[in-house]
């Protein structure tokens, strides 16, 4: 088994220059941002797999889902008989993500104001998780393994806020995407809180 792991204490997803230019932070614990770590990955990738097919097979295995299913399996083997495994929620509708991405392209958003690519990724992730859960159900027929559909439950809030007594949001779809207080339009996110 080949594993590559690049966690770096104090690393951020965004480059140091962003913090300097946007919010005046002059120093961080490290400047090994996600882009730097991605460059490390690209440099080592040729040693992980040689052909396109080999790389496809290697990267189809998702470590997060594998970890969730391994832990679920271990819990059942320890005697658990009822488990709830949650899927992920539509992160493309998350105010923090919307604020950070801040795309000016209308085509990046769906009709509810959510980022399409982020939600498409989460839909794919949730489908993969459901497949693994089905495999676990077949292996452990005596256990009750329930997939909690976080995604569609939360998505309904954005699609029909009036059905959930969120009347003040019905006239303006963007309002449901706002944080309660703090920052500027359109999402009212206070950068010091994120």
Automatic annotation (TrEMBL):
Keyword presence, NAD: no
GO molecular function annotation: hydrolase activity, acting on ester bonds
Keywords: Glycoprotein
Protein family per UniProt: Belongs to the 'GDSL' lipolytic enzyme family.
Name the record gives this protein: GDSL-like lipase/acylhydrolase
Organism: Medicago truncatula (Barrel medic)
